[in-house]
Amino acid sequence: MPMRSLEALTSYLEQVLGHAPDLSPISKDRLAALPLYLRSRYDFLDARLDQGKIVFALVSESDAADSPSVHAGNLEVLERVLNKPVALVLPGIPSYQRNRLVHQRVPFVVPGSQLFLPMLMMDLRESFQRAPRSSGDTLSASTQALLIFYLLGNPVRDVTLNELADRLGYSAMTLSNASRQLEEFELAKSERQGRSVSVVFPRSRRRTWQKALKLMSSPVKRVVRANWQSSSNPGQKAGTSALAEMTMLDASSYAIWAVPAAEWRADSREIPESDRGNIWLELWKYNPRRLSDGELVDPLSLYLSLRGTGDERIHIALEQILEEFQW
DNA sequence: GAACCCTACGTGCCTCTCGG
DNA sequence: CCGAGAGGCACGTAGGGTTC
């Protein structure tokens, strides 16, 4: 067994647990039950932790880069034969690979960096005190755009991911990720028909909206003041400007427009806070034009952008929009 | 072989942390 | 308090596998 990785594991566990871990080499006869390709691939340690007993399988530097699915497959066999939960011990691997292991629920330890042992309810990473950002409880921007695209009544059944990607202005990869995320949150299913995959929403649009409400966030990343002199519109009407056109709400004194945040960065017309701009620009995390081709942003994104405000009149207007929405 | 999707990996931006 | 650096997230590209 490579001494250095054993030492690294021991001292990392000690740091995490607060005391020296109880580790011992696994007995020869239990090892003998393993298929040869697995026996030679890993070094095994029996571990008794406060939270329970597990087996650590130490992975060599050269095997660490294997895909998560390879690791997952091997773990399945190991757990069955050894009859205990098994966790991989990996040398330094890039963060995106660690993320993928977590995604696939593969238990592992990277000494010094991260520990993910879901069966023992342990999940630590180097910066675990950092507030979990948009972690597992909100949809990503692209996923939300796809979901709203469906909720607005656009056809998604029998449409390939590629076509959807085209329609929404994302890469196929991003749409593939988005459909997977919808599946994870049990909002939709991916249905394979021959060589194409389409997204299928099992519920009605209204029920999907209700189920997804707590997972969706405001499309607005940032609001800036800007000076707009051109006769064309900077984007689509948004915020209370849009709400005023849809309901009886009084319009705000400044016009509010939505533009994709990505476009804004390209040509920065932002003016300093102290200067007087004549409009407000909402910078959106997805492209509002992909979801509405009218003068106004789509009503569902509008709802999400304003539901956090404290103004009672706005809430009443928002409820009115939902009531009138054609589900 | 073409069309399509997925895996592996790269990149840029943003946020958080930490040392001066 | 601020700037640099680290790390995570979201997205992209390349290339390979699968289905027709």
What would you say this structure looks like, in words?
β6 and β7 (122-125) form a beta hairpin. The termini are far apart. Helix content is 38%, strand content 20%. With 327 residues, the protein is of the alpha+beta class. It binds a DNA duplex (20 and 20 nucleotides) through α5 and α8.
What brief labels describe this structure?
327 residues; 3 domains; 7-stranded mixed β-sheet; 13 helices; elongated
Brief summary of the model shown:
The chain has 327 residues and is an alpha+beta fold. It is 38% helix and 20% strand.
**Gyration radius, rounded:** 26 Å
Count the E strands: 13
Helix/strand structural class: alpha+beta
Biggest sheet: strand arrangement: 1-2-3-4-5-6-7
Largest beta-sheet characterization: 7 strands, mixed
List low-pLDDT spans. 126-136, 265-269
Number of helices: 13
